[in-house]
Specification:
Chain lengths: ~110, ~110
């Protein structure tokens, strides 16, 4: 069983709509959760971190965490063509581990 | 700006010819990581340093070694590259105490001929 699972996509969303990306994880003791954006041929770029249940908003991005259901999601409002990328979910498996487990990513395409 | 720097950005080496990739950081972070990423795959952790403490992943081949001579620099040595080692190599850093956000360098694309 994969430790961090994401739908590989591609997920196609019209420009201006909300893109919703989901991630589930297997380790119930996980404490820290991150979303990275990776453009083709580039390195991952941290866009959101979330540690507590609920929503965390940063500009057009909202991360949502539900530890009871073991999922974390990323919403992108007013999607722009520049949001087209692969989005990686990363989870710190247990507190103080200092390592992250990455999902394989969801490829998002924003259609103008 | 504080950042993570990797050199070279592109490296071509011959089958079996040793290669060294370098990473430096101005963030003064305690932890430095090396990942291997192949197309459409998740980054795969090879090893990491917490200060001078080296932590090797169990499935990292012996062909891969690392050095961290000081806080700012970390090197990845591939002793005898095979065709299967062609990948993007990513260096990342994190503060490592209380916050495990990892920040990546631009990566080195390794081609093995």
């Amino acid at each position: 069983q994969k430790e961090v699972e994401q739908n590989s996509g591609p997920l196609s969303v019209p420009e201006g709509a909300i893109a919703s990306l989901n991630c589930t994880y297997s380790d119930r003791g996980s404490q820290s959760f991150f979303w990275y954006r990776q453009y083709s041929g580039k390195s991952p770029e941290l866009i959101m971190s979330i540690y507590s249940n609920g929503d965390k908003e940063d500009g057009r991005f909202t991360a949502q965490l539900n530890k009871a259901s073991q999922y974390v999601s990323l919403l992108i409002r007013d999607s722009q063509p520049s949001d087209s990328a692969t989005y990686l979910c990363a989870v710190e498996p247990n507190f103080g581990n200092e390592k992250l487990t990455f999902g394989t990513g969801t490829r998002l395409t924003i259609i103008p | 700006d504080a950042m993570v720097i990797q050199n070279p950005r592109y490296q071509v080496t011959q089958f079996g010819k040793p290669v060294t990739l370098s990473c430096s950081q101005t963030l003064n972070h305690n932890v430095m990581y090396w990942y291997q990423q192949k197309s459409s795959q998740a980054p795969k952790l090879l090893f990491h340093y917490y200060d001078k403490d080296f932590n090797n992943e169990a499935d990292t081949p012996d062909n891969f070694q690392s050095r961290r001579p000081n806080t700012s620099f970390c090197f990845l040595d591939i002793r005898s590259p095979g065709l299967g080692d062609a990948a993007m190599y990513l260096c990342a850093t994190s503060r490592g105490t209380g916050s495990y956000e990892q920040y990546f360098g631009p990566g080195t694309r390794l081609t093995v001929t």
